[in-house]
Amino acid sequence: MPIDILQLCPLMPALEADLARHYTVHRWFEMTDQPGFLKSHADKIRGVVTGGHIGVPTELAAQLPKLEIVSINGVGYDKIDLNAARQRGYRVANTPDVLTADVADLALGLIINLARQLILADNHVRAGNWPKGELGLGHRVTGRRYGIFGLGRIGQAIAKRLVAFDGQISYSGRRKLDVPYTFYPTLAELAANCDVLIIAAAASAETKHVVDADVLKALGSDGSLINIARGSLVDETALVAALQHGTIAGAGLDVFADEPRVPEALFGMTNVVLSPHVASATHETRRAMADLVLANLEAQFAGKPLPAAVV
């Protein structure tokens, strides 16, 4: 008899089809009577499939007595109470590594797009404004000072790409690493010593709003912020103010604090590049993520080690 799975959010159609072939899937996000479902089905649910941006509410997990695993389609697990998982004895797994290259690529895309004004350039041509005048100068990407906050898998992948641009690379994080880049013990010091500050650290209580008004002031009026990590790392009120007042030069953002809602003040800013959390959104990576979600579930229910365990 198929194992019952609770799906908390929409997923790639191919992944949904694979889940449906192997499990009895209950689509939580479509239910009109969630309390009624829990009353009749809670003791059947052995697995939860979710996204990193949603996780699983602790109060929901607490109502699933047979829960064995939460399989995340993504790398982020900040929306899951790991202590509760350990205490209850259910596993948490994610999909690391397979999306590293794509996230790093998008970071470079935001950097180049912002520096060379590619969106403005495209609009300039499409609007028929080129014959009327030049767009104006952008900034060089090669040889600039790049600071990376969070030199994990993704941060190091970004750094390797920036080496090809002759970038002067520095970083900050929990500890100094054995890497050929300059280390700064605090984020404020890192910001003060780079032209482009790239946020690539994991979201946690410790890193919430770590990019605040002081860090943005340290980055300075010629500096730009790139965020491909999580929106919670940036104080968005402070960021909007910094962009409005010229405290920093610009920003490239793929993530936001309250997705899919984005501060409307950013919409009219020409010194900002916005993307809707699509760093891992390629056919190749989403398929690899889906395969890992399935592999984590299969391993758990077969009593085997998880390919990508968090706890």
UniProtKB/TrEMBL annotation:
UniProt GO molecular function: glyoxylate reductase (NADPH) activity; hydroxypyruvate reductase [NAD(P)H] activity; NAD binding
Keyword NADP among UniProt keywords: yes
Classification via InterPro entries: D-isomer_2-hydroxyacid_DH (IPR050223), D-isomer_2_OHA_DH_cat_dom (IPR006139), D-isomer_DH_NAD-bd (IPR006140), NAD(P)-bd_dom_sf (IPR036291)
Signal peptide: none
GO cellular component: cytosol
Record domain D-isomer specific 2-hydroxyacid dehydrogenase NAD-binding: where: 108-279
Similarity-based family: Belongs to the D-isomer specific 2-hydroxyacid dehydrogenase family.
Name recorded for this polypeptide: Dihydrofolate reductase
Pfam short name (any one): 2-Hacid_dh_C
Organism name: Phyllobacterium myrsinacearum
D-isomer specific 2-hydroxyacid dehydrogenase catalytic domain location: 37-310
Keywords: NAD, NADP, Oxidoreductase
